[in-house]
Specification:
The protein is of the alpha/beta class. It is built from ten helices and eleven strands.
Length: 246
């Protein structure tokens, strides 16, 4: 049952009154500094995800409080630990995923999708923050995820040793900095959709992720999709939309 259908049923059964039904059906919550899209899940299947970077800790509390009041599943990415500590002090029911720097909350835990997992591969341990942003996002939306960390091309045997497991994935997210060649290599070994994520990991000539980004955009493996530098969330969101229709 969709959220609007539940609200209508609650109104007809007398669980809520007309004014409360109208409030819950409002498409936006105007906080002055932000316009929260409350009906996005009805349109897209998933609620709005909040980009935490650049917002004050007080603004994050206001946003999170409204979403919890509306029983809206929430995910806030790019939250510094100091801001997260402030938020948790006022809204203790929220969970902070420290490695991913993500805040999350759900009213109830939904049953996980029964399907092959979405796999996340990283070239190195230093790519793990971006990988965890992706993993937490996937898990939040109730899709199974499997992690394969630190199996980059500098030690090719590490990837080859895991390839039979990786081939059982529904979608594969490949995260790499440095030369950024890992998605091309994986793309030549598996038949599943691949989403490549360049990271800022590397020395000076990597130009803060530009070098791996260009490598991935010029991949010789056909069909590799590329998202922006360090965009673990974007890769995860794309992956769940692909997995949902398969």
């Amino acid at each position: 049952m969709s959220k609007p259908e539940k609200i209508i049923d609650d109104l007809l059964s007398g669980t809520i009154d007309r004014q409360e039904a109208i409030r819950q059906l409002e498409p936006l919550a105007d906080l002055g500094f932000a316009q929260l899209d409350l009906n996005r899940s009805s349109r897209l299947g998933y609620p709005e995800v909040i980009f935490g970077e650049g917002k004050t800790k007080e603004q994050l509390v206001d946003i999170i409080s409204v979403l919890i009041e509306r029983d809206t599943s929430l995910l806030v990415t790019r939250v510094e630990p100091a801001k997260a500590e402030f938020v948790l002090g006022l809204v203790p029911e929220v969970i902070f995923h420290e490695k991913a720097e993500v805040l999350s909350w759900k009213k109830t835990e939904e049953k996980q999708q029964q399907m092959d997992p979405i796999s996340i591969i990283t070239a190195g341990t230093s790519d793990q923050k971006v990988a965890e942003e992706a993993a937490v996002t996937i898990e939040h939306f109730d899709f199974p995820v499997r992690r394969f960390y630190d199996i980059g091309v500098a030690g090719l045997h590490r990837l080859i040793g895991k390839i039979s497991e990786i081939r059982k994935s529904s979608v594969i997210i490949v995260i790499a900095g440095m030369d950024g060649v890992l998605p091309s290599l994986v793309g030549g070994l598996v038949d599943r959709p691949i989403i490549a994520v360049p990271t800022q990991v590397g020395y000076g000539a990597s130009f803060k992720g530009l070098a791996p980004l260009l490598t991935m955009l010029n991949s010789c493996s056909p069909g590799v999709t590329v998202v922006n530098i360090d965009n673990g969330f974007g890769a995860a969101y794309a992956a769940i939309r692909i997995a949902k229709v398969n």
